[in-house]
Automatic annotation (TrEMBL):
<keyword id="KW-0520">NAD</keyword>
<keyword id="KW-1015">Disulfide bond</keyword>
<protein>
    <recommendedName>
        <fullName>Dihydrolipoyl dehydrogenase</fullName>
        <ecNumber>1.8.1.4</ecNumber>
    </recommendedName>
</protein>
<keyword id="KW-0676">Redox-active center</keyword>
<keyword id="KW-0560">Oxidoreductase</keyword>
<dbReference type="GO" id="GO:0004148">
    <property type="term" value="F:dihydrolipoyl dehydrogenase (NADH) activity"/>
</dbReference>
<comment type="similarity">
    <text>Belongs to the class-I pyridine nucleotide-disulfide oxidoreductase family.</text>
</comment>
<keyword id="KW-0450">Lipoyl</keyword>
<keyword id="KW-0285">Flavoprotein</keyword>
<keyword id="KW-0274">FAD</keyword>
Length: 468
């Protein structure tokens, strides 16, 4: 049937995946409608994810570095934190970007429909706003509904002292003692912020290392540094109960042998992962299959089982990262516009913007061995990098992995300040099928941290001459 509004391409959700898909489809000549339940565009990433967290991490970095300059002869007064002003600055960064998106949408004549969208049929979405329903019909649809934080049944999530990442980014005071439940990227980034702001931090993680999934070698320097700064890092430990009490949140921890201890915190940040929003959009009414966890399966063009309905971003699976969503958004929009575009990226880099940063791309050593690849590696310790020492930091490491049969780059892990920026070079190397000589013979600017990639390749080749 006819809708109140019709889009040749209707995009559900305006996060990095959704806005990218909408803009690309519009640039390719499609009449695009973008449905978003929130008041601003940009999704989790711009509003309550990547961007506000990086603004606060910048503030944390300045505080921490200023403090550490005392070791090098420069002492500043103890920082005074005007939390309202800091919160306001963070909000202004977000506003500038989300406002920018509105302008870009207008410029492309992308029609924004504000409200909560649910499928009512294979070519229709009903968008509800304050009880009023707008019917939006489509020829093709791109689902970009994203994800939300996982909640746990034994935690009183309605207590204001229990927060998720969104609550942590709101900077509603600085808790004296903060428990970060979950030692993944999001939990550790927020721990870094609150540590700098003056909270005493405990991190609890179920697995045997923080950032499970990343190479142990590159996680170690981060672990070592935060171990020295935080109250406690509890590994192989499960939280079994959180009890709201007048004086704080009483938390029960259980170690792997079943032994329990309790401790009381002012706030608990629950950062145990994100759950896709696939189950919340009545996808079955459009004939789109959603698995029991809420993920939507897609082919290499991002098409669901219904060829005219695509899905992208966090709602289609791991890794739940903005740059993956953006890439998939372009693939879906171009396929929807009739181009023969497929998702064929070899690798997706991951970064924890902690202090130090931890970044990796491609295979880890363990994964390469599991696949029967003869792995060779070049590891370069930043203690031998002039630039790193000039930053007052020596704990970093760049580890590049090669396939011994043809010397091609298959993965890398980097830990140290700015590791997230450095990993892009290795991602490009893998995409282009570069080998050790390509990395080793490319002239890198001196003195930069980027040289450590060059040196790691030379370590593998055995051609390194001096460590500078
Ligand atoms: P989202 O960004 O989740 O957007 C989905 C949008 O759809 C939302 O605006 C939502 O309101 C809307 N929506 C959902 N359902 C409906 C509906 N039924 N009707 C209408 N609208 C709907 N990733 C990185 O790559 N780098 C980082 O540094 C990084 N930092 C992060 C920090 C934090 C604290 C968090 C929480 C996440 C971070 N991420 C980071 C992850 C990143 O935010 C996500 O991977 C990314 O936002 C996913 O984009 P998306 O387009 O799939 O969906």
């Amino acid at each position: 049937g006819a809708g109140d509004i019709h889009g040749e391409v209707v995009v559900l959700g305006s996060g990095p995946g959704g806005y990218t898909a909408a803009f690309r489809a519009a640039d390719l000549g499609k009449k695009v409608v973008l449905v978003e339940k929130d008041a601003t565009l940009g999704g989790v990433c711009l509003n309550v994810g990547c961007i506000p967290s990086k603004a606060l991490l910048h503030a944390a970095k300045v505080i921490t570095e200023a403090g550490e300059m005392a070791d090098h002869g420069i002492t500043f007064a103890k920082p005074k934190v005007d939390i309202k002003k800091l919160e306001g600055w963070k909000a202004s960064v977000v506003k500038q970007l989300t406002g920018g998106l509105s302008g870009l949408a207008k410029g492309r004549k992308v029609q924004i429909v504000n409200g909560y969208g649910r499928f009512t049929g294979p070519n229709m979405i009903a968008v509800e706003k304050d009880g009023k329903v707008t019917k939006v019909s489509f020829d093709q649809c791109i689902i970009a509904a994203g994800s939300e934080p996982v909640t746990l049944p034994f935690i009183p999530h309605d207590d204001p002292r229990v927060i998720d990442s969104t609550g942590a980014l709101e900077l509603d005071g600085i808790p004296k003692r903060l428990l970060v439940l979950g030692g993944g990227i999001i939990g550790l980034e927020m721990a870094c912020v609150y540590d700098a702001l003056g909270s005493k931090i405990t991190v609890v993680e179920l697995m045997d290392q923080i950032i499970p999934g990343a190479d142990k070698d590159i996680v170690k320097p981060l672990h070592k540094r935060i171990e020295g700064r935080y109250e406690k890092i509890l590994l192989k430990t499960r939280v079994t109960a959180v009890e709201a009490q007048k004086g704080g949140l009483k938390v029960t921890f259980e170690d792997e042998k079943g032994g329990t201890i309790t401790d009381t915190f002012d706030k608990v940040l629950v950062a145990v992962g994100r759950r896709p929003n696939g189950k919340l959009i009545d996808a079955e009414k459009a004939g789109v299959a959603v698995d029991e966890r809420g993920f939507i399966a897609v082919d290499s063009q991002q098409r669901t089982g219904q060829r005219h309905i695509f899905a992208i971003g966090d709602v289609v699976g791991q890794p739940m990262l903005a740059h993956k969503a953006v890439h998939e958004g372009k693939v879906a929009a171009e396929a929807a516009a009739g181009q023969n575009r497929h998702f064929d990226a070899r690798v997706i880099p991951s970064v924890a913007y902690t202090d130090p940063e931890v970044a990796w791309v491609g295979l880890t050593e363990a994964q390469a061995k599991e696949r029967g690849i003869k792995v060779g590696k070049g590891s370069f310790p930043w203690a031998a990098s002039g630039r790193s020492l000039s930053l007052g930091r020596s704990e970093g490491m760049t580890k590049v992995l090669f396939d011994e049969t043809d010397d091609r780059v298959i993965g890398a892990g980097i830990v140290g300040p700015n590791a997230g920026d450095l990993i892009a070079e290795v991602a490009l190397a893998i995409e282009m099928g570069a080998d050790a000589v390509d990395l080793g013979h490319t002239i890198h600017p001196h003195p930069t941290l980027s040289e450590t990639v060059n040196f790691a390749a030379e370590m593998f080749e055995g051609t390194i001459t001096d460590l500078i």
